[in-house]
Amino acid sequence: MRQHVTHDTSDRDGARGQRGRAAPRRGLARRLLARPAWGLAAIAIMVGVVALIGTTVARPVASVPSDMAPEVGKLAPTFSLSTPEGVPVSLEGLRGQVVLVNFWATWCPPCRAEMPAIQAAYARYAGQGFTVVAVTANEQPANVTDFFTARGLSFPALLDDGRVHAAYRASGLPSSFFIDRQGVVRAVYRGAMSDAVIASEVERLLAE
Questions:
Q1: Contact 96, 80 (CB under 8 A)
Q2: How many CA atoms lie within 13 A of 69 on its CB side?
Q3: CA distances in angstroms from 176 to 36, 74, 196, listed in the order given
Q4: Contact between residue 97 and residue 206 where contact means Cβ atoms under 8 Å apart
Q5: In percent, how much of the chain has pLDDT > 70?
Q6: pLDDT in tens, 34-72
Q7: How many beta carbons lie within 10 A of that of residue 183, not counting itself?
Q8: SS3 category, 34
Q9: Mean pLDDT of 145-163
Q10: pTM for this structure?
Q11: Where are the domains of the chain?
Q12: What distance in Å separates the CA atoms of residue 186 and residue 198, rounded to the nearest whole number?
């Protein structure tokens, strides 16, 4: 299409005598577009172009799949957050323990479904060097406290403003990261985990 426009422009500027022959061609184009079938085809092409442009604009710039970061086998991004009561907890301070970093929300059904399994693993393996930190973003402290109290959850809940979620690419909830005693990410799960999955990962890392 660009070649056709360039060619027409060159003819107009370089050879005024060609106007007589160009006019019939333009008249033919108008007659073809005047036909219903051609008119509908032209409209369809324009709609398709607009849709393609809209899709391109809406696509996130430099999007990276969530499972690309943090990478398994590399150090977990460090962070320091506070509980609803204001007690600070840092991931670096948990070095030497096997840590499950669980990203969740009070409004997330799969998160609520897996909480009993996480609590059972915490109660069973805490004495062997396993701990859990449950990170939630933009929640009211009182809502988090009520959620944990109602379900008998005893592991720490941490309040995030969204930056730790972003660092871990935890856009889907729940997202869980198993971190070994050296602070290295060893397994990543997206979605609710079963009792068996949690127990298997924890026992494997505790045995190392």
A1: no
A2: 11
A3: 58, 15, 15
A4: no
A5: 67
A6: 554 444 444 444 434 333 333 222 222 223 344 446 889
A7: 18
A8: helix
A9: 97
A10: 0.68
A11: 2-58, 66-206
A12: 13
Domain spanning 66-206: which superfamily?
Glutaredoxin (3.40.30.10)
Eight-state DSSP code of residue 52: H
> How far are the Cα atoms of 5, 18, 28, 34, 41 from residue 31, in angstroms, in the given order?
19, 20, 5, 5, 14
Token readout for 191 is 């979605």
pLDDT at site 181 = 98
Count of CA atoms in the C-beta half-sphere (13 A) of 6:
3
| Other Cβ atoms closer than 10 A to 90 | 13
In degrees and rounded to multiples of 5, residue 177 shows phi and psi of -125, 120
Radius of gyration of the chain (CA): 30
Residue 89 phi, psi dihedral angles, 5° rounding: -135, 130
Going by C-alpha positions, the residue among 14, 6, 192 that lies closest to residue 105 is 192
Q: Which tokens hold the place of 143?
A: 């809502």
